[in-house]
Amino acid sequence: MNHHAPLILDIAGAQLTAVDKQRLRHPMTGGVILFGRNWQSRNQLTELCADIKAVRSDVLICVDHEGGRVQRFRNDGFTHLSPMRALGELWMQDSKAVRGAFHTGSGAMAAMDAATACGLVLASELRACSVDFSFTPVLDLDHGKSGVIGDRAFHRDPRVASALAKSVMHGLLQAGMANCGKHFPGHGKVRADSHVDIPVDTRSLSTILNDCALPYQWLSTTLTSVMPAHVIYEKVDALPAGFSPYWLQDILRGRLHFNGAIFSDDLSMAGARMIQGREVSFAQAGMAALNAGCDLVLLCNQSLGDGHAVDAMLDGLAEGLLKHHWIASEASEIRRQALLPKNSPLAWDALMTDPAYVRALDLLP
């Protein structure tokens, strides 16, 4: 282990180009994030992933695949999963007969079983196509304020959200997939969308720790990675959480004892390019995130067109390393590699008759 490969980048099309292969070989590249434009069919996706691994076997192939409106692959056999709010709604059906049971708590128990089924189906289908990892589950609480979160959240109650998220993660784990809790310490209370703006949350640290951040405290042994929010919590720090050593090192690592990988959110989002009122380059934003305590940084949708931004990012990180603008971390690289699956997945045809998968399909909300 003699390097730290922090960048998760994307590719423009459904097949690898010579330029893509060159970028994958770059020592700064640690992963690839796939989007809908990289999808044509299951066979094509499986071939694309195989081609990526042929260039670099240790590259982490990622996707945003949560269910609901955030699910990149939805046809050619992929199960279209419900938004996570559907699990929270099932939990609340306690006073009604759920699957023939009238016991108090039966709604909660049924919801947890369904949540595990969601995780298992989601991860099994992705892994059957050789995708390693999904950025899920959303741990944001449903405050009813955030359009960008909305029905992606399980529930308003941090206890319900944590129990259901843990159940989803159990299903992911059964299929050999790691997890990512997002968006730390909580995105659900702000209205602005950090893709186009920098949302500001005015709550105090104690209010956040006793509400939105509770899932991170309660799931510290279960979470394998975390993605911080592009949100400024102005009473806590002037920097957005993903650029804040205080949030990432003092709170997440120190107070909440989280030991897994920390991903920056997408650095191409408007919320990521302004640091304390100053517009910075992608590479500067990446180094700021790494210096704050991120292990990995995402740059999405910049391979389109000439892809110059991706190359500038790779070269900027490499140059920054030589000039000591950021320091490569062996611990970060170990955390990145820990997210790679440890076992071989079931191929698609075998998955279709696998009893655990078939049962999970029946339990989906």
Describe this structure in words.
The chain is of the alpha/beta class. The chain has three domains: 87 residues, no CATH class; 135 residues, Alpha-Beta Barrel (TIM Barrel), CATH 3.20.20; 115 residues. Helices cover 39% and strands 12% of the residues. It has 14 helices and 14 strands. Strands 6-3-2-1-14-11-9-7 form an eight-stranded parallel sheet. A hairpin with a 2-residue loop joins β4 and β5. It is globular and about 65 Å long. It starts with 6 loop residues before the first strand and ends with a helix. The mean pLDDT is 92.
Kindly summarize this structure in a few lines.
This protein has 365 residues and is of the alpha/beta class. The protein contains 14 helices and 14 strands.
List the helices and strands and how they pair.
Blueprint: E1 7-9, H1 18-25, E2 29-34, H2 42-55, E3 60-63, E4 65-67, E5 70-71, H3 85-91, H4 106-128, E6 133-134, H5 158-174, E7 181-184, E8 200-201, H6 205-209, H7 214-218, E9 225-228, E10 232-233, H8 245-255, E11 261-266, H9 270-273, E12 274-275, E13 278-279, H10 282-292, E14 296-298, H11 308-322, H12 330-338, H13 348-352, H14 355-363
Helix pairs in contact: 3-4, 4-5, 4-14, 10-11
Helix content: 25-40%
CATH architecture of the largest domain: Alpha-Beta Barrel
Order of strands, main sheet, comes to 6-3-2-1-14-11-9-7
N-to-C SSE series? EHEHEEEHHEHEEHHEEHEHEEHEHHHH
Compute the number of strand runs. 14
**Domain module tally:** 3
